[in-house]
Inverse folding.
């Protein structure tokens, strides 16, 4: 009998590995085919300007970058790295700060430093130079950053579903929904920090789950604490809004699992190098420990579209307006939940979570992570994240949202029909978002009819489930220790 069980488990694991390879290949195709060969906004232009300057001129100064001093399209210098029909980009990126007589990118420096290493590898092996072939440069920088991050995020969600004990069909369903029915594929098409942080958060959630030979009460091994700390530290350098929140929430989880000084020491020793590197670079450029664009003086250059009245990080609201603005960030025409419809199910079932769930601490901290980011940007922004698809600051929230959904569907499989309906409508929005890309300048076509159709269909299915044999009852979990 034991031999039969072991054979069945081996066959199941083999099928899971084969499906995982297939998912990895599909995500890679999306990343490779979807990557654009141009910078589509000030945002990615600013990041790429730093990458080009670091390798080609060995400086953080971006004054001479083709993304700032944009060449004409006469072919003499390879042409413009931006779409030629976008008048807003002809003068180069405006996401920059002016310090001591020079322009610098206002984006976090460490991700640009890592991407510069990728550019150096390509330049050493293929001779790639940004000013000569800006299209190739933009394409390969996108594939090497956002494309890789998208594949990593999808792979982490699939592995996370397996670690949580979902059946193979549910693993595929949740992963496919994450990769198709959200804004994640759209953000794989251009260089940006938001999908990078999404990949980090997804990997963190995976590493926080115990393996088959472990239990939740045994704590986290030191080797994995170092990996978790390194991921959290990298997240800190990617986004100075969500990054610090991620570090605090992750520390809370590891201490909840085992509240010891050594636990915090292992974790923080892996976080520290990333934090030190980030602030050391910032200080070497601007002589400050805070983000470069946090100072109104650094934005006061001729023609700057930013000042204290519209810069992020400053309170801009009346008491009544902040409530409306906060709600619109989630439910308005650019609302995050409206562009990621499956997350509505996680929000709707939030009151049903119980303390006896093994993953309850992660669920609580996932909720706190998302709630804090939402409230932070609701209070300290006023521009709905600028020209972008939905709210770009919230893209990392997809990982904790799908973690909650995975646990929900494992425990209450009756909700699968709700999830399928929302994912189906979400796939249409996801496809439209992928087509227009992360820097969409207008609301997606059919956005409101799709919202209405999704909500009506979801309500109908929920009513049928309650009135028929589709009860969303709790079921015994599939053991992760099989």
């Amino acid at each position: 009998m034991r031999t039969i069980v072991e054979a069945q488990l081996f066959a199941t694991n083999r099928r899971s590995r084969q499906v995982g390879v297939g998912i990895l290949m599909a995500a890679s195709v999306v990343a490779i085919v979807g990557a654009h060969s141009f910078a589509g906004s000030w945002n990615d232009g600013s990041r790429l300007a730093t990458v080009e300057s670091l390798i080609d001129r060995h400086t953080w100064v971006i004054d001479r970058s083709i993304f700032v001093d944009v060449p004409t399209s006469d072919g003499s210098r390879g042409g413009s790295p931006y779409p030629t029909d976008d008048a807003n980009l002809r003068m180069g990126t405006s996401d920059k700060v002016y310090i001591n007589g020079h322009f610098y990118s206002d984006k976090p420096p460490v991700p640009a430093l890592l991407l510069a290493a990728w550019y150096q590898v390509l330049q050493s092996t293929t001779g790639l130079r940004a000013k000569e072939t800006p299209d190739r440069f933009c394409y390969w920088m996108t594939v090497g950053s956002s494309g890789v991050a998208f594949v990593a995020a999808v792979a982490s969600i699939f592995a996370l579903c397996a670690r949580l004990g979902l059946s193979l069909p549910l693993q595929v369903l949740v992963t496919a929904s994450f990769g198709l029915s959200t804004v994640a594929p759209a953000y794989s098409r251009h260089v940006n920090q938001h999908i990078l942080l999404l990949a980090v958060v997804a990997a963190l959630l995976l590493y926080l789950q115990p393996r088959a030979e472990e239990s939740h009460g045994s704590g986290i091994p030191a080797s994995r604490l170092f990996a978790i700390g390194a991921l959290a530290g990298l997240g800190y350098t990617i986004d100075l809004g969500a990054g610090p929140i991620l570090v605090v929430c992750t520390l809370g989880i590891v201490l909840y699992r085992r509240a010891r000084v050594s636990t915090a020491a292992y974790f923080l020793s892996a976080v520290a190098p990333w934090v030190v590197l980030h602030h050391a670079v910032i200080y070497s450029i601007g002589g400050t420990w805070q983000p470069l664009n946090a100072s109104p003086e650094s934005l006061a250059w001729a023609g700057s579209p930013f000042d204290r009245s519209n810069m992020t990080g400053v309170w801009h609201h009346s008491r009544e307006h902040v409530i409306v603005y906060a709600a619109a960030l989630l439910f308005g025409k650019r609302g995050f939940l409206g562009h990621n419809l499956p997350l509505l199910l996680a929000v709707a079932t939030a009151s049903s979570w119980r303390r006896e769930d093994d993953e309850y601490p992660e669920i609580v901290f996932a909720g706190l992570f998302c709630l804090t980011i939402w409230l932070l940007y609701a209070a300290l922004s006023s521009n709905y994240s600028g020209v972008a698809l939905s709210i770009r600051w919230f893209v990392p929230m997809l990982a904790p949202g799908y973690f909650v959904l995975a646990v929900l569907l494992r425990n209450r499989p009756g909700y699968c029909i709700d999830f399928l309906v929302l994912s189906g409508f979400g796939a249409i929005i996801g496809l439209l978002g992928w087509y227009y890309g992360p820097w969409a300048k207008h609301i997606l076509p059919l956005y409101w009819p799709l919202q209405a159709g999704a909500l009506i269909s979801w309500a109908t299915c929920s009513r049928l489930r309650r009135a028929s044999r589709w009860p969303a009852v709790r079921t015994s979990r599939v053991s992760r220790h099989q």
In short: The longest strand covers residues 96-99.
